[in-house]
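Archive maintenance. Older records in this collection stored only the sequence; we are now back-filling the structure field for every entry so that each record is complete. The fields below show one back-filled record exactly as it appears after the update. Entries are processed alphabetically, and Branched-chain amino acid ABC transporter permease is next in the queue.

ARCHIVE ENTRY
Title: Branched-chain amino acid ABC transporter permease
Organism field: uncultured Desulfobacterium sp
Length field: 285
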Amino acid sequence: MLLASIVVLAGIYALLGSGFVIIYKASRILNFAHAEIVMLAGYLAVSLAVAIPFSAASLLAVLCFCFVLGMSIYAILIRPLAGYSVLSAIILTVAVGVLLNAVGVFVWRGEMEVIPFGWRTYFSLPGNIRLSSIEFATLGIVTLFYACMGLFYRFTKIGQQMRATAENPLLAAQRGISIYRISGIAWGIGFAAAGLAAFLLGINYAISLQIGNIAVAAFVVALIGGLDSLLGTIPAAFIIAATEQLTITYANPRLGDAIPFIIMLMVLMFKPWGLLGTKEELDRV
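Back-filled structure field:
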């Protein structure tokens, strides 16, 4: 059961961290409204799951909403700050987070909610490991997400333009790539990743105003893996989830929230750019 908990939590952490990375790679902006996006998407998923019993349909609706919201926030709030200090955009994301948190309190009153998942059964695996259907679905969705993102970056025109923008935005612009358009799409995908993570959090755990603690751990995952490395979120998430769960189970549960930051300090002392990040990102980190 402990191994299953670690793997599932690592998958959710990786998915949450990927939202930070996707947005940062394209726009060089840290989105500090990420936790509130997860919360809002989770509450929306709860409401839609009641109105639309079919989980896949409610999930698709949440992903579409998050994608449009991400592109809208970039187009309306972030893009007009082009040419100004990056710090201005980062502070603006903090303000957006406060606003979204207020929406969550006003509409859903900040209550703890669980997304209903109709099909629930258990599977026994070698090594006395038991996984529920929800845990299987979570691992399958996370794996599918990373596979799709890998194919997207490698084989699609927009994905290749995102890679070019991340590596050298000036040269990409000179080659005719619309940096603003690519950044807007990246913000949409990053928000959609947050929405997907919120759905998985809702069916495995619960949605509440305290969900920000998990999102903070996911930000640490992005830092440890490398802010410009989507692949780096995977080993970083497993490291954080394993040490956190082992500490809670066999040591002091109160240390659980501190573990991600302890691991982050240990890693960044030796590799300031993260496990799989590039050294060129050091100045930005």
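Update note: The mean pLDDT is 87. The beta strands are 122-125, 129-132.
Entry marked complete.
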